[in-house]
Structure formats: structure tokens, C-alpha cells
Amino acid sequence: CPLGIIPEHSLSRLGLGGGGAGVPKHSLSPQASVVVERVWPVPLGRAGAQPRLQPRRHRVLRLLRDGKHRPRGDMELLLTRAVQDVGARGDVVTVSKRLGRNRLLPRGLGLYPSPENIRNSPRNSLKPLELPQTPGITVEFLRRCRLEVGMKNNVRWELSPDIVARHFLKNVRGLRDFGVFLGFPGQIPGFGGFWGPQVNGLDTVRVPMDVVQFLRPKTKRFRHWREQQRQQLESSRERLL
User: Which GO terms describe its molecular function (predicted)?
Assistant: First the structure.
């Protein structure tokens, strides 16, 4: 309805109508209540008599506050397992109530952060020597990585450290906080293999980098499919021979 004007019969199911004899009475809490008012005030009736409602005019209501359909807000949960894009195991995170009540709590991925649950959480139950060495794991992960940067061949370009850093953060998955990127000196004018970014902290890691021709995702998928078909054909030939 325009301008928040609601006919009374549409709210009769909620018990918010004109208070007729057939309308049930509900005790609504402020969190889940719908507050309305009449557009045209009801004139006073005679002494000892009920006010007389006009059939159409006095059954039109104006919506003031809708507490039933407003956003539910956020809630805090203690994660029992690592959840992608949410947090690690044992973290107290703030998520939307829709995500927490529909996904995390029913699947056992989160608990309410009560003092007992926080005290018994996996992270607090571990001894200091048993805690995971996150920097060391990150360095070992970077040693196994290989960066591939795609550049177009129909324009003139030079590969700068900023472009390499952007491709590194985009393509090397599993690395969230990356504030130790050093890059490499100078510019790269053409295609080929190079030693790319360096990571400094516990150790210095040199990640191998390949500068190749840029391909669209559809072309990459087609070439990958064609290579799979070729390998399957060769394997079938070997079995037949």
C-alpha cells in the first residue's frame, strides 16, 4: 500500500485490527510487534456507548513501526571448526543471525560464547607448546607455490611490482594477511620465467613466477578439456595395442 497505509482487514490475522468481537487478542512483545495508527481519528461516542466506526474510513491504518520484519542484527558465536570466510577453530566471531541460526548452529559449527564454552574451547585447552605455528606453515606453503601472471600480447607493457603483488594476492589462495611482500627490483618487459616476490619474516622465500600470454577463462577451460581428451585417447590406444 502507498505511504505505509494498510487496510485493517490485512492485519486482522495478527490481532491488530479494530478490536472486533471475532478478532483474537495477542500479547505481542516489543521486539516482534507491529505498531499502527488510524489515518482518520474515531469521534467520541455518546455517554455509555461505544464509538461508531465508519465502515471504510476508520479501517485504514498507517504503519509506524514494523518490529516483526526488521533486520535481526548480528550475533556472536564460538566456532568449533574452521569455516571459510568466517574464522578459524576456537575464534569468537560476529555473524548475522540468519547465518548463525540457519547454518552454523544446526551443523554444529558454532556454539554460544558462554564462559564455559570459551573455557573449554579447543584453542584454550591447548598448551602453549601445542599451538599451531602459523608463520612456519605459511612459509612452507609459499615454498610450494608457483605464480603465473597473464599479460596481453597486443599491447606494450612492463610488469611492475604492484602488478605482481596484485596477481600474487589474487592467485595464491590460502593466504589472508600478507603484509610482508617485498617484490622484486626493476621491471619485466616480456614473457618468460623469473624469480618473483619474496616473503620476509621467519625466512625469505623466493616464489618462481611465469609471465605467460593472457587467456580468457573460457579458452583456458577449452584447452584443459582438449588436453584431457588427448590423454584419454592415448591411454585407450595403449590399452588396445
Answer: structural constituent of ribosome
